[in-house]
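Objective 1b. Sequence-to-structure analysis of NADH-quinone oxidoreductase subunit A.
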Amino acid sequence: MSTELILASAIFVAIGLILTCVFVLSRFVGPKNENSEMKNSVYESGVTNPIGTTNIRFSVKFYLVAISFLLFDVEIIFMFPWAINILELGYFGLFKMFIFMGLLFAGLIYLYKKKALSWD
């Protein structure tokens, strides 16, 4: 075996032992809260007694906005490498990016037509 492999496995084992010791020590040395009523109570933005139930239904528009945000946010992941390598890709890469932007624009128009972006 190589010395690098032995060193890496020794470091891995040492980190595992150190983490195990820290978790065991924190269990014995750390503060204990014996009051389980306080531990299981709800605390929300300074309000200790919330009003209403937690089983309320949200509108589907919340989820539509969240999913559309994720879809349009992920486009940046594809645009950044293209912007870095624009000179190497040439006109073919520019044409591909115009197709990609056109598809994204079509998706945005679809969301606008479905009124997923307007709040009632």
